[in-house]
Design a protein that fits this description.
This protein is of the alpha+beta class. It folds into 3 domains: about 5-60, no CATH class; about 75-175, Helix Hairpins (Orthogonal Bundle); about 185-349, 2-Layer Sandwich (Alpha-Beta Plaits), CATH 3.30.70. It has helices at about 5-20, 25-40, 40-55, 60-120, 125-175, 185-200, 215-220, 225-240, 265-280, 310-325, 340-349; strands at about 205-210, 245-250, 255-260, 285, 290-295, 300-305, 335. The strands form 2 sheets. The protein has a 5-stranded mixed beta sheet, with helices on both faces. A two-stranded antiparallel ribbon has the order 4-5. Strand 2 and strand 3 form a beta hairpin. The relative contact order is 0.07.
């Protein structure tokens, strides 16, 4: 039940929290802090509660990640539930119409049988005329009901097709990062699960983990809108260089992941360097003024999936390579066979 007093109190709490946490008061952030104040989303309550208790700053990347993982999934679930209910209603209505049509067909059959019996007996011309007229009337009525049913079923079919299209759109939205337009973490996880099934059959699968160099500096210097522009630019570069069954996804914050099917480590490292080079050629331009803000670079770690291992193991190896790329100067590609990784491991030990 809608309670205006409670809604107003939650709204005030959300606005106050945004101020205390030095978070920009925009609609997206308000939705997130309102959800936290309401306490109805356990994931948001846990993550944001711990963050606030520790007095840690909320970055734009973290807030976007929370919206994607927590609010988007909740909205998707609600949309799927609503569409599912609507689909059920349409199907139930169709079944009711078909049941009614079945009863009417039985009645018509009974009328035909009765007319047949009457025609088989000796009757006067007037009686026969009445039987025939009654039969014609029943047939005409049945034709009209059949025509109406056909129209209703066509309308129901159109409704089902419309609902199916909406379900497909919701499903696509649930697998798409709203800011960059490429696959999100859930879509990547699904693709990785499918790829792992093919490794047993001998297919090579490689993973790229990409991180934008000095991304925090872009945000702190030029603002979050420019930071969003950087994320979109990198996502576009990934899309340019990834085709077919491969998956480019926003993995979280300023980190991206690329799943390469049928590609071994050597070729994956080559593709990674191609992506790195594409990003490096782009100049970041401030839309409002046309000023060139500088170049963007990314660091990439590359690993190849191994048969029988968990997905997390390959991710850890790729992440270690990404750390190696950043450790050795950024704007470079490091794969798990790179000699620099052995040197790094020796240093860490």
């Amino acid at each position: 039940m809608y309670k205006p007093e409670r809604e107003q109190a939650l709204a005030k709490t959300a606005v106050a929290l945004m101020g205390e946490c030095d978070v920009p008061a925009n609609p997206d952030n308000f939705e997130l802090f309102y959800a936290y104040a309401a306490g109805e989303n356990p994931a948001i309550a846990q993550v944001m509660g711990a963050h606030i208790a520790a007095r840690k700053p909320f970055t734009a990347a973290m807030l976007q990640d929370l919206r994607t993982r927590c609010l988007s999934s909740a909205r998707t679930a609600k949309a799927m539930e609503t569409l599912g209910t609507n689909m059920t209603d349409v199907i139930n209505a169709v079944m009711a119409k078909l049941e009614a049509a079945g009863r009417e067909a039985e009645q018509y059959s009974s009328q035909l049988n009765a007319a047949s019996d009457e025609l088989g007996t000796q009757r006067s011309a007037g009686d026969l005329r009445a039987v025939v007229q009654g039969l014609l009337g029943a047939t005409k009525a049945m034709e009209e009901r059949t025509k109406n049913l056909e129209g209703e079923l066509q309308r129901s079919s159109a409704q089902v097709n419309d609902l199916r299209a909406k379900l497909d759109n919701v499903r696509k939205e649930s697998l798409t990062d709203p800011l960059t337009g490429i696959a999100n973490r859930k879509a990547f996880d699904d693709a990785a699960e499918q790829a792992m099934q093919q490794i047993a059959g001998g297919e090579k699968v490689s993973l790229l983990l990409c991180d934008i160099d000095h991304f925090k500096k872009f945000n702190d210097t030029w603002g979050h809108q420019t930071g969003d522009q950087v994320l979109k630019l990198v996502a576009a570069c990934l899309s340019e260089n990834v085709k077919g069954r491969d998956t480019a996804a926003r993995y979280g914050g300023e980190e991206f992941a690329v799943l390469l099917r049928g590609i071994g480590l050597t070729d994956a490292a080559r593709i990674a360097d191609q992506i790195r080079g594409t990003v490096e050629t782009k100049n970041l331009v401030k839309k409002s003024t046309g000023d060139i803000l500088g170049k963007i670079t990314i660091s990439i770690g590359v690993a190849q999936f191994r048969e029988g291992e968990a997905i997390e193991a390959a991710v850890r190896r790729a992440d270690a390579c990404l750390y190696g790329a950043k450790h050795h100067g950024r704007n470079m590609v490091v794969d798990e066979n790179d000699p620099r990784m052995a040197a790094l491991e020796t240093t860490a030990a």
